[in-house]
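fyi for ur records
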Amino acid sequence: MHRNSIACVIPAYNEEETIAGVLDALLSQTRPPEVIHVVINNTTDETFYIARRYAGEHVSTHHDDIFTTYVFVHDIGKNLDKKVGALNYGFAKVADSFDYLLGVDGDTILEPDAVERLEAEAETESRIGGISAIYTVDPRSSRGLVSSFLTTGQRAQFAAFTMDNLLRGRNMAVLGGQCSLFSIQALKDVMTANRQSTPWVSDSEVEDSLLSLQLRSIGAATKVSATARASVGGMHTVRALDGQQVKWNFGAIDLMWPGQRSTTAGQPFHPNLRLRWIENASMFFNITIRLGFLLLLSASLSIGAFVFSPWWLIPPAVATLLNLRIALSIKGRGARDIWFALLFFPAEIYLWMRMGHFLRAWAKFFGKAQTDNWAAQAKAERGREAAYLAPLAIGAVVVGGAMYAWFQQSPAIQSGILSLGWPMLYITTLVMTLLMIRKAVRRHHGFTV
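which gave:
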């Protein structure tokens, strides 16, 4: 009986703490890859020497099947294309000999049957060009109170994003590099259709999002698995999370906005970007509602015109219900996931942080700053980046300026602002609350994330 051949490529950058666990998980799969290429780039730690211990032949047995896996470790040194360069290096090694390429990050731990499940689902439909595992952040990786808070927030964020994709026909907007299985033929078709010499291009901030768009554009499906799972490395400091999220948001904006790059022009109406537009619109309204409420509340209190209404308790209650629904959908959920949702404020604080990432990304985009966001993220992870404080400082200036302008107005103008501002805020909040209710009560069809 014909057995598909799978080659795994692991781009590794300073992964000395995790690379052994990644390789152990791959070699102990119920269906391991035939070959694993660890492509080390720009590394300054012991990643190469740890990975080198695994080089060579590995034989494993599952039920009555015997598998042989060969591990190769490549240190390509200084690589200006970073992860993209490592992925393309690995692709060149396997493009002519294998059916599938499994991309796995150097800090991603696959569940024991993840590869088997990805392959089985990919084989169910010939149109599938790539299929992604369900990701979560292992709560055991947290390193203190702040790290625990950020880990739980990322788990909720990943869960909400994945559930949205699962409920849209399992069509995945982004085949994340953490753990995705690609058809080699589909990758070659992308190269031909886009006149590229490699599947991943170096002039995109989000190489995985762009490749997903290109796969869809040639008629290949991009799916998320309903059952294959993997734990990914989370961000454990506010700086590191900011660096990662700003890079992701900036890259997504670059793909959404038309005509940004000569080789990867924005495609605002591409089907894969619908969810991105919804996310950005939702974030815009979240910022508008919260900032508007703070300003109107401060203005009303300053002249003794505020009257409390219990109706304002409904949106937080609905938000808590939605957050709880997301928490309950997480496979292997713990008490921290539930309390994160129930207490409201942890999820709200994390959302404020995400709003800061959103604003920073759009500011960088419209400022046309030529920033190496990969380097910025790496710098942030090392604790050497302070740009994450910019939204807080700008917010303080905006609020301070608005309040100063408020006190310069006559009582008649102040009254007019309040009489117009509050109704507009009511309507916007009502719309967002109805959308949250819709998401909170929709059926999950048995999916867990």
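The chain has a mean pLDDT of 91. thats all i got for now
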